[in-house]
Structures are given as structure tokens and as C-alpha cells.
Design brief:
Rossmann fold, 2 domains, two-stranded antiparallel sheet, alpha/beta, Phosphoglycerate mutase-like protein, 12 strands
């Protein structure tokens, strides 16, 4: 009897798990291995290409053909209306997106037979052409030593720069001088000796990290022990976290705010299209990960969320339901969102893990709660971005405050004197001043006015202005 009950319970559990339906997913992905920032322009390496391709292959097995397959998504031949792939205008990021897509939708051998009986084989064994759309911010991210340099948000730059005046920064800058001096020879003049310090913590780490992956030898290599690399990484993490997020001034996390707005928009597109939209992937830089981690309170789930993520890392937002979705798209109250993250290249042997959002403990949140929490900091419109950033030129000119001249004129009108009346009064005042000056000139110079009649009766050549006796 107990065995029968156990079997029945297991059957019910299996049924409940099988009832889960994934309706869509949004992935934010870092680029693969690249050349160092200090030697711009940066380029995606063969290793980086392989990393993002492997990641794309994993997400293919998860969302296109596996147990978590997105309902209705095309498995083999891409249907472009189901996808939204984006990247800033950046060589490394755009190429990473293309490599990822080759893993997500590999070539399909397509042979077309023409009317005359000729068979035409698609180039590159049916390589699938999938466009990568560009996003407006983050251009040139991988050529910037600090990624806020790739942002035109004035208030975000000011907020990030405030980190350099903080006690955390000054303490670490002072205490690590000897450490950075010891590794100067290893930098090998890629940057100047006086730049090898905590102020450039990520750049220094990046140079040596790339060298450790690709160079067969590094000068002064005896100093570069595992302990040294651990310290370099730890200092770079502290530096970049301080620039990307601050709990008391989250304006520096503008990249995470924009990502939140983009995730919300796409999730709403999935819902409003009744599932026609299915899968989105955006490629971006590590600062966006850090900014979003801070805004979503993910450091409460793990301190690992306060460090720079590895190449080809990915975070995922899954939209799913436990309700019966066989008869149509579920209502908003039946929708849930799950957050997953993987540090480094995701694969079938190293899959993303689920983490609780917003400082909670649940593996998933309702769609309504997800939307409410993201709305607290998400930037969803250009006007919102311009207002938060304090920008007033270019695109933001349309949302800038009215100029002072217009306000002054409006204020004058509200005092009861119209511009027209004010002009008349001004003209009379000017005339009075001119007449006053003329009278003073005549009095001091001894001149007087003579009528035309008197002039006519007077001596020829006489002046109409005569000196006084």
C-alpha cells in the first residue's frame, strides 16, 4: 500500500513538472575571449569565438530542443520574427553575437531544385543568415578602459567618478602601491609605469590575464603566482564594482537600469503577442552585469555577484507558467519569471544555476512582482533616460527644460505689463533722456535755439545756434 501511494505521489510530481511550459526567454551575454583593452582596437580571438559558439549550442539544447523548449519556437530553420538579437556597435560584441547564433541555429543543408531540374546547394552548407540589430548605447565598449566612457549619460559619469573620492578607493589605492610596483616589469610597457596602480586596476588585470592565456612567456613571471593573480582579480573586482554600483547613489548603475527596461519591454512583447515573440539575446559588457546585480539585490544571494564576470558569461530571464497552456496563452496572473546565471561559457556539462531575485529566497517570482520590482529602477523611454542623465542636447533637446528667456518673458507678463506696453514706456524714457542731454549741452556751451523766421531776417551766413553774450 505504501509503495502504491509512493508511486502515485511520484506520478503526480512528474505530472506537475511536465506541466511547466516555457513561453520565452531573454539572455544578456558577455563576449568571448578577446585581445587586451590597452591595445585597442580589441578583437575577438579564436578561443572567444569557440566560447560563444559553445554557449549558443547549449541554449539551443535548452530552448530549441530540450525539456525547457520554448513553446512553438522553430527548432532547425530560424524564423526571424521569433527572435530579437542585439548588440552595441562594437567589433568584439557584434562578432560574439554572430558566433553565438551559429551555435543556436547551425547550418541547415538546403538544396533547392529549379524549374529546369537544376539543383542548387545553399552556400556554406545552409549557413543561416540572422541579423544582429544595434542598440543605441555602449558603442565601442571593448575599446574603453572604463566602460562608463562608452556612455553619454552625464549623471552616471559624475556618480562613477565620485568613487575616486570615497574612503574605500583611497584606502585601497594607498595600501596597494607596493603590490603594483612589484608587477611593473610584467606589464612590459603596454601602459606607462606610473599607470600601474589601483586607479587602473582592471586595465592592469586585463593585460596580465590576456597574457597568461595567450603568451608563452611573460617578463618577471616569477612574481605572477596564483596568489598574485588572485589579488589582481580581487582588486579589479573591487574597483569595477565601486564604479558600476553604489547603494546610496545608484545613478552609476544606468546600464543596469537600461537593461531592466529592455527586458521588461521584450517580456511584455511576448505577452502582448500571445507568444509570437519567443527569444531575445543581447550582447554587452561586464559593467551591465554588475549594475544589474546591484539593482536586483543579487549580492544577497551570493557575494560572487559583486565581481567581474568571466568571458562568455550569461544571465537569463525565463518566462514560464505552471498553468494549462494547451488552450491558449496564459493570463498575467499565471505567469512566472525565473532568473539563471552562469559565470563563463555555459555547456551541457556546466549549466546555468537558478538564483533568487530582489533579495528573496524563491527560485521564481510572479510576473506581476517581477514587473513591479523592475519598474522601481528600469529606464524604459528616451525621455526617462534624458531626465535621469541630465542630458539636454541631441536627442535629449526635445525634453530639456525651457530656456530662461522664455521664463523671464512669461514672468514679466504675469506682473501685469504686456510686452507692447513695456516697449512704449521704454521709448518715452529714451526720448526724455535725449532731450535732457541736449538741454544740458546748450546750457553749458552758451547756445540757444533761434526760430527759422528770426534766421531769415538775420544776417546772411548767420548760424541758427548763436553764442550767448
Amino acid at each position: 500500500m505504501k509503495s502504491a501511494v509512493a508511486i502515485s505521489a511520484l506520478s503526480m510530481l512528474a505530472g506537475a513538472e511536465a506541466a511547466e511550459t516555457v513561453l520565452g526567454a531573454y539572455i544578456f551575454h558577455r563576449h568571448g575571449d578577446r585581445t587586451p583593452k590597452a591595445l585597442a582596437p580589441t578583437n575577438l580571438t579564436s578561443l572567444g569565438y569557440e566560447q560563444v559558439y559553445t554557449s549558443g549550442s547549449y541554449y539551443r539544447s535548452r530552448y530549441l530542443s530540450g525539456d525547457s523548449k520554448i513553446r512553438g519556437i522553430n527548432e532547425d530553420t530560424v524564423k526571424l520574427s521569433q527572435l530579437a538579437i542585439t548588440s552595441p556597435v562594437d567589433n568584439v560584441l557584434q562578432n560574439s553575437a554572430m558566433g553565438f547564433l551559429q551555435g543556436l541555429y547551425p547550418p541547415v543543408q538546403t538544396v533547392q531544385t529549379l524549374a529546369n531540374g537544376q539543383s542548387v546547394q545553399a552556400p556554406m552548407d545552409g549557413y543561416q543568415l540572422i541579423p544582429v540589430n544595434t542598440v543605441s548605447t555602449g558603442a565601442g565598449s571593448e575599446d574603453s578602459s572604463w566602460l562608463q566612457d562608452a556612455s553619454s549619460c552625464q549623471n552616471a559619469k559624475s556618480s562613477s567618478n565620485a568613487y575616486f573620492d570615497s574612503k574605500d578607493y583611497t584606502d585601497l589605492s594607498s595600501s596597494t602601491k607596493d603590490f603594483y610596483s612589484s608587477i611593473v616589469p610584467s606589464i612590459n610597457h603596454v601602459i606607462s609605469d606610473d599607470q600601474v596602480n589601483f586607479k587602473n586596476a582592471y586595465v592592469v588585470y586585463d593585460i596580465l590575464n590576456v597574457a597568461s592565456i595567450h603568451n608563452s612567456s611573460i617578463p618577471n613571471s616569477k612574481v605572477l603566482t596564483n596568489s598574485t593573480f588572485t589579488q589582481l582579480r580581487s582588486l579589479a573586482n573591487a574597483h569595477e564594482w565601486g564604479l558600476a554600483y553604489n547603494a546610496s547613489d545608484n545613478m552609476r548603475a544606468v546600464a543596469g537600469m537600461q537593461l531592466a527596461g529592455e527586458v521588461l519591454k521584450y517580456m511584455n512583447d511576448i505577452i502582448s503577442s500571445n507568444g509570437t515573440k519567443k527569444f531575445a539575446a543581447q550582447f554587452g559588457a561586464y559593467a551591465t552585469f554588475l549594475s544589474f546585480f546591484g539593482l536586483a539585490d543579487l549580492e544577497k544571494a551570493s557575494t560572487n555577484f559583486t565581481g567581474v564576470v568571466d568571458y562568455a558569461s550569461s544571465m537569463v530571464f525565463e518566462l514560464f507558467t505552471d498553468a494549462d497552456a494547451s488552450s491558449g496563452f496564459p493570463g498575467a496572473d499565471d505567469l512566472q519569471v525565473r532568473f539563471l546565471f552562469h559565470n563563463g561559457t555555459a555547456s551541457n556539462t556546466s549549466e546555468p544555476a537558478v538564483y533568487p531575485l530582489f533579495g528573496g529566497s524563491a527560485d521564481a517570482v510572479s510576473w506581476n512582482d517581477f514587473q513591479t520590482n523592475l519598474d522601481k529602477f528600469a529606464i524604459k523611454t528616451t525621455e526617462q533616460w534624458c531626465t535621469k542623465c541630465g542630458n539636454s542636447t541631441g536627442t535629449c533637446a526635445a525634453y530639456a527644460p525651457k530656456d530662461n528667456g522664455a521664463n523671464t518673458q512669461q514672468k514679466s507678463s504675469s506682473n501685469g505689463i504686456s510686452p507692447a506696453i513695456g516697449g512704449v514706456i521704454g521709448a518715452f524714457v529714451t526720448l526724455a533722456v535725449v532731450l535732457g542731454l541736449l538741454a544740458a549741452f546748450m546750457l553749458v556751451g552758451g547756445f540757444r535755439l533761434v526760430s527759422k523766421k528770426a534766421l531769415k531776417n538775420g544776417a546772411a551766413g548767420g548760424s541758427s545756434v548763436e553764442p550767448k553774450a
